[in-house]
Fold this protein.
Amino acid sequence: MRTHLELRDRSLVDVLDLALRFMRQYPKKYATLSAAVILPWFAICCVIGVGIDWVLAWVVAIIAGTFAQAPFTLLASRLVFEDKVPLSSVMSDGLRAIPKMLGVRIVQTLLVTVGLLGVVVASIWVGSVVMYAPEAALLERMTPGASISRANRLVGGSSGDGLLAFVLLLMLEVGFVLIGEYAGRSLLVDLLQINPPESMWDAGGSWLAMAGFWIFVPYRATARFLAYINLRTRAEGWDVQTSFFALAARAKDDEDPAPISRRAA
């Protein structure tokens, strides 16, 4: 067992920073996967928004975005543990996981909806409890029901961290949408001297805001995976396990070959 990053108990802020640095280590793989996954969905949502209605476009984006995160979760998980990660296998495994992910998302949506029947705070808490269900389904090969139970057990001992991660990622997602709208509009008007699209507040959306939403998807998947790894490190001692594996490998490399030499003599 060998990893390409140090497994240790980290704060959530450290995890979010690590996700950005981790993506910067593999820019080509993330860019290639984004071109294959993000660009088509971004184009589809913009066509729906311009041609039909932006509200429908946002509904499609939110639903599709939950599934579009799966290939990036698989990519991040393999980059942590493997030396060579062919993107073709990531894409094929992501496609095969769609039925399982659909089941997980349906169960998650039902649970959050039940929480909304009470108060908003309850739905946020339920969302935080089951937020790592996709990772359990994808990486631990669990059924939708088992993945929900697994996510609940993982977050159970650190419910405060799970709630904070859920809220921060949600705030960052909204922030990226706003950055896409305002920074993109400023870039078009002030630098490129191009007429910007109608404001998202007037039309219900714009391709600038939609770009901010989809740009955030790879980071969200990577940050959530690393937070999941952090929880497993804390709960299951992955840092200790990897240390023992490293010591065992080092001891094997340092074995004295003298007995073989003496036999040869």
